[in-house]
Write a structure and sequence with these properties.
This protein is α+β, with helices and mostly antiparallel strands and about 375 residues long. It has 2 domains: about 110 residues, no CATH class; about 190 residues, no CATH class. The protein is about 40% helix and about 20% strand. Strands 1, 2, 3, 4, 5, 6 and 7 form a 7-stranded antiparallel beta sheet that branches. Helix 1 packs across helix 3, helix 2 runs antiparallel to helix 3 and helix 5 runs antiparallel to helix 6. The termini are far apart.
């Protein structure tokens, strides 16, 4: 497959502020700036206005209280100058924040355009099959860049929330999505290098350990591979030594999920960014993996019944056509499991809570 050179000039070239303002106004007219990102900016702006009003009020009060015989005291003047400086800093910070976000949008949009791709500021609740897209609530993909290159690819930052109130948490991810030529069994490569304490997976989903498949060479030192029971031979067909080498050399820092006709690469840092090195790494990784995906297009699930040919041949024995494109039901999704490390932490937490309750009850 031919390789298109990556044009990153838009990420660093000087920008015209008037052009940035015009681009932002166009996004507003098109209704594309109604995401949680804009809402956050609104809260910051309102908070800044409240802070300015509060500091002005405080400065007036301090001026009056510290006046001496109708004349402002040096302390009062000092307080006034201090609050004026705070107001100026808040105003400057808001200006920098708005300009920075507007410039970022402008650069990413023009970077995408220069490379035959499309940029979109935000996609609420993206309809994607990967494991991170079904977790929590308030799901949103931001700075989404997608299009053919030459295989269809999409890069985006992604957040979702779990819990509520004081226990609410925001989970930040980023993803690269590749469209495959045919649906494949559900396979997950859990990168070993980004695991947490005691080797705990950083993935939001735990899979049953009886689906873990060990591969030859040093692949297991980089990835834990999970495939549906009964699909071990299919996984070995897909992950030949040369394919394994590509993933080790180019994607060992990323978690990988193959689901339906999609391949996802997951990271816990922003991938849709203004950093040139990140984009060059993303597309070199995509190109390296894409080189080997052609052989996956020939895979067929033998569990799907072959059908007789519509017309018999001269010998009178009907030919069988290959199984149709698709995956049998048992191979479409991995079975969820339970993390013993998580269970240990839950037990310890409950034990500590019981200990504190009993201590308070009997030691009074």
């Amino acid at each position: 497959m031919s390789r298109m050179p990556l044009d990153t000039s838009a990420l660093t070239a000087p920008v015209d502020r008037a052009a940035v303002r015009a681009f932002t106004a166009q996004l507003r007219r098109e209704g594309k700036l109604t995401s949680a990102v804009v809402t956050t900016i609104g809260f910051v702006l309102v908070g800044g206005i409240i802070l300015v009003a509060a500091t002005l009020m405080a400065s007036v009060v301090s001026f009056g209280l510290l006046a001496d015989n109708g004349r402002p005291s040096p302390v009062g003047i000092g307080f006034l100058l201090f609050f004026v400086a705070v107001v100026a800093l808040v105003g400057y910070a808001l200006i920098v924040l708005f300009r920075g976000r507007a410039t970022r949008r402008y650069r990413l949009a023009h970077f995408a355009e220069a490379n035959g791709l499309t940029w979109f500021p935000a996609v609420p609740n993206p309809d994607l099959p990967g494991m991170i897209f079904s977790e929590g609530h308030d799901r949103e993909a931001t700075d989404v860049v997608h299009g053919p290159r030459p295989r269809w690819v999409e890069v985006g930052n992604y957040t979702y929330k779990t819990g509520s109130g004081k226990s609410e948490q925001t989970h930040k991810w980023a993803y690269v999505q590749l469209r495959l030529d045919t649906p494949l069994p559900h396979i997950v490569l859990d990168a070993v290098g980004n695991n947490g304490l005691f080797g705990a997976s950083n993935l939001p989903t735990t899979f049953s350990r009886d689906q873990r498949l060990s591969l030859e060479g040093d692949f297991d030192q980089h990835f834990a591979l999970y495939c549906p029971k009964g699909y071990e031979r299919d996984a070995l067909y897909l992950f030949t030594p040369d394919v394994m080498a590509r993933f080790i050399d180019n994607a060992a820092a990323l978690d990988v999920e193959i689901i339906d006709d999609r391949l996802f690469l997951y990271a816990r840092r922003e991938l849709s960014t203004l950093d040139l090195a990140t984009w060059e790494w993303i597309f070199s990784t995509v190109d390296a993996i894409d080189d080997k995906l052609g052989q996956w297009a020939r895979w067929r699930d033998e569990r799907l019944a072959a059908t007789p040919a519509p017309a018999p041949v001269a010998s009178g024995i009907p030919l069988l056509t290959p199984p149709p494109v698709g995956v049998a039901r048992e191979g479409r999704r991995l079975r969820r499991g339970f993390s013993w490390i998580t269970a240990v932490f839950i037990v310890l937490g409950v034990g500590w809570w019981l200990f504190t309750v009993l201590s308070d009850t009997f030691l009074r």
